[in-house]
Amino acid sequence: MRFAMKVLTPVVLGLALAVSACAPTENGASVPSAAVVDSTMLRPDPLHPVGGDMITPPGWTVRLDTPDPAVAIGGEEADDIFFVSMTPGWHIRTGPAGIFYHPSSTASGAYTARTTIHLFDPGERNEAFGLFFGGKNLAGDNQTYDYFLIRNSGEFLVKRRIGAETQVVLDWQPQAAINRYTDPAVSSVSNTLAVRIQEGQAVFLINDQEVARLPAADVQTDGIVGLRVNHALNLHISDFAVVPR
């Protein structure tokens, strides 16, 4: 995957709404400034993308695990991270790993966070992807969030990020409920991941099947919810929602 030296502008990011500036994050990825019109602060709707299809969705932020100002993020085929609205949902192709989130996608108390992710041919790669939740201070050095991931080997993981470090909450476990990409004749396979917080429990589901349950006190439940995508993956996210219970 190429790491391009290019300036990220509102045009490269595909912004269809007026912004006063594009401010670089600490990881070098430009994102819309606070001057974006209020409509971009609505919760993302996979059926009604703000700004239209085939542009990088306004209001979203991409934070890389490892800061690199040379990484190009946008809606061009040559970009290192390709991230566009594509009804229904969004399409993401990564070089480097990171998180994708909209600041209005927050959750607290009792809720269900869910996403349906279609995995395209991963080749020999076994990189993980899924949901993160309980996100706080995501723009700072003291970022923290928990994440629920699957990988094409048919395993799932629950982990925590604190700053630059990570902690295992539930280590990789095999799970038959995971749909694996095994047939090159098929364009993609889909999996629905959900985290349900209710009655003091955090319930983790894959394709509507419960795969783990933890005391809610053992995970970070309140905060921003988003997508976690590791290296060199080609994904379509057809559903992403936070639903209060």
Account of the 3D structure:
The protein has 245 residues and is mostly beta strands. It has no helices and 18 strands. The strands form three sheets. Strands 3, 7, 8, 10, 11, 12, 13 and 17 form an eight-stranded antiparallel beta sheet that branches. The protein has an eight-stranded mixed beta sheet with strand order 4-5-6-18-9-14-15-16, with no helix packed on it. The chain is globular, with a radius of gyration of 17 Å. The model is unreliable at 1-28 and 30-40 (pLDDT under 50).
Give the terminus-to-terminus CA distance: 41 Å
The overall strand count is: 18
What's the helix count?
Answer: 0
Arithmetic mean pLDDT: 86
Q: What is the overall silhouette?
A: globular
Radius of gyration over C-alpha positions, nearest whole angstrom: 17 Å
Helix-strand pattern: EEEEEEEEEEEEEEEEEE
Strand content: over 45%
Helix/strand structural class:
mainly beta
Contiguous uncertain segments of 5+ residues: 1-28, 30-40
Instruction: Report the major sheet.
Output: 8 strands, antiparallel
